[in-house]
Amino acid sequence: MTAKEIRQAFFNFFESKQHHIVPSAPIVVKNDPTLMFTNAGMNQFKDLFLGEATIKYSRVADTQRCLRVSGKHNDLEEVGIDTYHHTMFEMLGNWSFGDPANPESGYFKKEAIAWSWELLTEVYKIPKDKIYVTYFEGDEKEGLEKDQEAFDFWKQYVDESHILPGNKKDNFWEMGETGPCGPCSEIHVDCRTDEEKTLVSGATLVNADHPQVIEVWNNVFMQFNRLKDGSLKSLPAKHVDTGMGFERLVRVLQGKSSNYDTDIFQPMIQFIAEKSGIKYGADEKTDIAMRVMADHIRAISFVIADGQLPSNNKAGYVIRRILRRAVRYAYTFLNFKEPFLNELVPKLAEQFKDVFDELSAQQDFVQKVVLEEEVSFLKTLRLGISRFNTYMDLSNDQRLTINDEDNTLEHFGIKDIYQKERFNNIINGNFAFELSDTFGFPIDLTELMAREKGWSVDLVAYEQALKKQKDDSRAATAIDTGDWVIVNADEQSEFVGYDDLEIETEIIKFRQV
Ligand code: ATP
Ligand code: MG
Ligand code: MG
Ligand code: MG
């Protein structure tokens, strides 16, 4: 099956179970202070779960474009290195919104489990013995019971040795400190070869680290309401909330050992390979770079198409960081010294026609924005990389001067200790700050480059340098404000001339599927 057919089969299946297919919400969240980007299918239905919106359809299914690069779910560091976490991915989902006035309209564990099984084994024909499922094992301390119901329903289809208990962290979902919550049940597919299987025993594998045992689907059963005093009350209307990783599903069904080997990513990867003159599969480093580019362009393009331009703060900076990360991989490992990333936009727009039309509708605009970003970043990237390499070639003594211009450490006789502690494979915070301030290197880019050399970055010192610059800028504006000197820095209105590189941490109040 092609990816397109697999997606369509999902819709057809749930349509046949009386689900209404709804469009994806935008990836950029504009009106929710708790969330910057959509990171799960359930986000757009939050108000329904909270009982704050009217239920229009009690059964719904869709594919939601999601982004997991900030806040509670941040998979960015994994992307490209592993082969199953993306920045932007599609989450297929089916929902039942229980209506207390009409309890028959929705469904719960029995149907959700039966349909997951039917879809995976009968429509998609995944061999039954490759499937492992999990259920909530209970938590005595929290007064939460084991999800016996889910266990019993699964037992009708799955051999007991493939039904594994999971703890509160993995198998109990809560929207926030209060509100709807309930146990969840995950579905994993064991794609290990026989040889790989002999290396580790099977039963412990679910939720473990073997890259060929893939979590594809999470079914959440909302059956409780957590009250302010911490106690749980049964919900009058129970809900089902599921999320299945589309790219992972396609990988499993196409029998590949990497999401990037599917027809979702291969056309893009082959295009990148052709243009760079390097074969995909030739070398791990260049492979990672190609995967990063093929992945990141999706996040970048959809975020821009959904209305968020790259900028120097908040959501805009998140996307600028991702773009710079991709440009830097392309530049360093694939020899793209001129803007190239933007050329991927039309290909992506074509690929997502009829799925997420938002991109093809704004293709030229998105491409232009990416091109402008590339041009401006490439200008300083070359200089920054050379500065970085010079720094790495310095001796510890020389590096110290970057941090200690007036030789205070020597003066106090602690230079040796300081060097040992601060310079053993650690990049100086002031230097990391210089890279970000002068060369536009996001801190995670510097960290990435450091990591490639087996180094880390002194983040505490970096934050200090950042703060110092901020304070200095504020002080400078305070002087300039005229007759008044603002005494309390906290009450000062924000200084807009300064590039705020900090990204506000999201307060994500709910765990999603
Ligand atoms: P993982 O443990 O692999 O990080 P998760 O438990 O964080 O996944 P959920 O929040 O349960 O993921 O999301 C539902 C489904 O979405 C997962 O079962 C998985 O198939 C898919 N998914 C989650 N994160 C990603 C990602 N970064 N890229 C691609 N698919 C993902
Ligand atoms: Mg995760
Ligand atoms: Mg998981
Ligand atoms: Mg999960």
Automatic annotation (TrEMBL):
Domain Alanyl-transfer RNA synthetases family profile: 1-513
Main location class: cytoplasm
Biological-process GO terms, alphabetical: alanyl-tRNA aminoacylation
One Gene Ontology CC term in the entry: cytoplasm
EC number, UniProt record: 6.1.1.7
Cofactor: Zn(2+)
Enzyme class: ligase
Cofactor note: Binds 1 zinc ion per subunit.
GO molecular function, one term: ATP binding
Superkingdom of origin: Bacteria
Keyword RNA-binding in annotation: yes
Keyword terms: Aminoacyl-tRNA synthetase, ATP-binding, Coiled coil, Cytoplasm, Ligase, Metal-binding, Nucleotide-binding, Protein biosynthesis, RNA-binding, tRNA-binding, Zinc
Subcellular location: Cytoplasm
UniProt keyword Metal-binding present: yes
UniProt catalytic activity: tRNA(Ala) + L-alanine + ATP = L-alanyl-tRNA(Ala) + AMP + diphosphate
UniProt domain comment: Consists of three domains; the N-terminal catalytic domain, the editing domain and the C-terminal C-Ala domain. The editing domain removes incorrectly charged amino acids, while the C-Ala domain, along with tRNA(Ala), serves as a bridge to cooperatively bring together the editing and aminoacylation centers thus stimulating deacylation of misacylated tRNAs.
Family under the similarity heading: Belongs to the class-II aminoacyl-tRNA synthetase family.
Protein purpose: Catalyzes the attachment of alanine to tRNA(Ala) in a two-step reaction: alanine is first activated by ATP to form Ala-AMP and then transferred to the acceptor end of tRNA(Ala). Also edits incorrectly charged Ser-tRNA(Ala) and Gly-tRNA(Ala) via its editing domain.
Name of the featured protein: Alanine--tRNA ligase
Native source organism of the sequence: Pedobacter changchengzhani
Part of the intact protein present: 1 to 513 of 907
